[in-house]
Design goal:
heterodimer, A: about 220 residues, mainly alpha, B: mainly alpha, 9 helices, about 70% helix
Chain lengths: ~220, ~240
């Protein structure tokens, strides 16, 4: 059923597209994490910031990925920005919620104890709140990484220069070539599952005291 | 195109182009018109949600009631959630096409991927909702002579309804948003405008499609949120966050 010869001939392209896939996903996750961490820390201190940022994030999530990728085409052309802006926005939806929930989950008496021990606001944030927020933040990273890896493949509709492994899926669909579709789809699914397991392991490794996984993100 | 140029600079902004496309009577007519595309979009979404419900709801009710097999179910749901829809559509395409050359390319891959997308939230919320029903109530009902089936139908399911509906809500919004991908495989639906808008460099059609899908998803979200709130008011239990 599969044309193994074709696969053998295209191993360099497969390696290139896999690397591109991971690169597109990693950039989006890194930027998304930096932004949501900054907003999350700010929202943990100034609560008024949270409702508007959560509302905006909720609206973004209902916008279909295809629509959001397409939405930037007239403005940014078929460049990497057209792919990365929506990818970052989707990571924000997931990460922001979990970062804020993470800080929110720190018990009030713990904070009071820290204050009583003479911690300054900055040190309390760094030494007390952050470590306690880490499990939910990592749980958010897990969901965000899986969803980003899936979304990267859709950037293939923006042209040959993008798409990562989605390039093979898209080209295979237009050429009615099952082997090429599988060459894109199977590694995409494997990457997503590996990312899921990796972050789950990380989540458990950081929080050996909780055996149940905790996720604040709705499915 | 210059005819719609409101600011007189000789170029249309994308807002002007979108408004023009959305208000053009031609956009609303015929088999490629907006009403027809909305119907196509909703037909596939509803069909996928029905398939997912037939599979996930009984499974969730059974596992939640038996209080056994939860680990396996949640594990399967996690794997299902991690599988990207676009990749799944690609994988099933050669198979569905071999069986049904007519619809195997357009309808079935999208339908399959959307059903898979909808199963995890419905399954996880159903079994979580049932499992978290107050066990004192369940024991009391059992003591009053409820059979297991009656217990599930008349005590556990009604109390778990808000949580179960929460699962439907996230499944519905995700499916409506993602059915757009069907257009890549020549299915109709609102994604058609986005794909064709990119291909024909027609910004009005592109953004018109974006606006319509987003409106449909937000509308479904609002409707189901309302339903969920009504159900929560009926059962005395507070709404639990869906996980």
């Amino acid at each position: 059923m599969l044309d193994w010869g074709w696969i053998g001939d295209h191993l360099p392209q497969l390696a290139f597209r896999t690397a591109q896939h991971l690169e597109l996903a990693a950039i989006a996750l890194a930027i998304g994490f930096a932004i949501s961490f900054a907003i999350g820390v700010a929202a943990a201190r100034w609560r008024v910031l949270y409702p508007p940022s959560a509302a905006i994030a909720g609206i973004v999530f209902t916008i279909p990925s295809l629509a959001l990728f397409a939405a930037f085409v007239p403005a940014t052309g078929l460049s990497i920005l057209t792919a990365e802006i929506p990818l970052v926005l989707y990571t924000l939806v997931i990460l922001l919620r979990n970062v804020v929930a993470g800080f929110d989950a720190v018990p009030a008496d713990v904070l009071e104890a820290a204050d009583a021990m003479g911690f300054t606001r900055g040190r309390r944030l760094l030494r007390i709140e952050l470590p306690l927020a880490v499990p939910l933040i990592v749980a958010g990273l897990r969901v965000a990484s899986v969803s980003t890896i899936g979304l990267v493949s859709i950037t293939a509709i923006l042209g040959d220069a993008l798409g990562g492994l989605g390039f093979f899926i898209y080209e295979g669909m237009t050429r009615f070539f099952a082997t090429e579709i599988a060459v894109g789809a199977v590694p995409t699914i494997v990457l997503a599952l590996v990312a899921d397991r990796l972050f789950l392991w990380l989540e458990r490794a950081i929080t050996p005291w909780s055996r149940r996984t905790r996720t604040a993100t709705a499915g | 195109m210059v005819a719609a140029d409101a600011d007189g600079d000789g170029r249309m902004t994308f807002v002007e182009a979108t408004v023009r496309w959305l208000t053009d009577p031609a956009s609303w007519e015929g088999p490629g018109g907006i009403p027809a595309r909305v119907v196509e979009h909703l037909a596939l979404s509803v069909a996928a949600l029905l398939i997912a419900t037939v599979i996930a709801l009984p499974a969730g009710l059974a596992v939640g009631h038996a209080r056994r097999g939860q680990g396996v179910s949640v594990g399967l749901a996690t794997v299902g959630r991690a599988i990207p829809s676009f990749a799944l559509m690609g994988l099933v395409l050669p198979i569905t096409q071999a069986y049904d050359p007519a619809n195997g390319f357009t309808i079935y891959p999208t339908l399959f991927a959307m059903a898979v997308l909808a199963i995890p939230p419905i399954l996880v919320n159903t079994l979580t909702g049932i499992r978290e029903v107050d066990q004192d109530l369940v024991e009391a009902a059992r003591g009053m002579g409820f059979t297991e089936a009656a217990l599930l139908a008349r005590v556990e399911a009604p109390l778990a309804l808000p949580v179960i509906l929460g699962g439907f809500r996230s499944a519905t919004v995700q499916v409506i948003a993602t059915t757009t991908l069907g257009a890549i495989l020549a299915y109709g639906g609102l994604g058609r405008y986005i794909i064709d808008g990119i291909a024909q460099r027609d910004d009005g059609m592109l953004y018109g499609g974006v606006v319509l899908v987003a409106a449909l998803a937000v509308g479904a979200e609002a409707l189901l949120a309302l339903l969920q709130r009504l159900a929560a008011r009926r059962s005395a239990e507070p709404i639990r966050a869906n996980t």
